[in-house]
Amino acid sequence: MPNLLVKPAGTLGLVHDITPQSAGWTYVGFGLHRLLAGEKTSGESADRETCLVLVSGKATVTVDGEDFGELGERMTPFEGLPFAVYVPKGSRWEAVATTALDLAVCSAPGAEGYKAQVIAPGRHPQMTRGKTTNTRYVTNIMPEDDNAAHSLLVVEVITPGGHTSSYPPHKHDEDNLPAESFLEETYYHRLNPSQGFAMQRVYTDDRSLDETMAVEDGDVTLVPKGYHPVAAIHGYDLYYLNVMAGPSRVWKFNNAKEHAWLFTGV
């Protein structure tokens, strides 16, 4: 199995390029472009659909020649809500940075019948989830109840320092609907201040997979299966962008039985 912790390759340009082949799985792809003002990047979606997320900064975005204008309003992922653009299969996209830009490229298998569109802030309002030190702030970008995509589920979460997230531990690694869905998942992590770190554990009931990782600013973690809780260290807020996809576009999870007593109210 590939290393579950993926470090960025440099500080500018394409710093992450995670494909189903490199991850050793079937569905999810994730890329991250870090551009200076005036630089541009582009891509072909081929047989995959894509969600471009402006993690920070501003850019002009076009899809198949359709100009969506300048998008973006936050300069860090910790201030405000995201802009995103959905790119259907068989399309070409281009983004030109008008400020320093972190652009996430989230992808999964596509299908016919979907249209390019901007997903503006406020389309899916930010939600507060959990209580006390399990409180975190969730913004759906492409949730399952939004019929804008064939496979992709995209969400971002801010977890305050000293809090847990993706907790109590849950998993979605069995294609057994309606009880549970199979979804591969990536986490793109950012820290504020950037010198901080957080902890993430990925493990299965039988412990055939059991890895605990110290994640730093800009790291990606892979979740091919199992439970995947996160802990933000005191003093450092954690942002992460999740990309999920599987055979069905449904997020149906099960909690670790030994921790089920924690679930009520958290």
TrEMBL record:
Q: Which Pfam families match?
A: KduI
Q: Which GO terms describe its biological process?
A: inositol catabolic process
Q: Which GO molecular function, any one, fits this protein according to its record? A: glucuronate isomerase activity
Keywords in alphabetical order, please.
Answer: Isomerase
Could you tell me what this protein is called? 5-deoxy-glucuronate isomerase
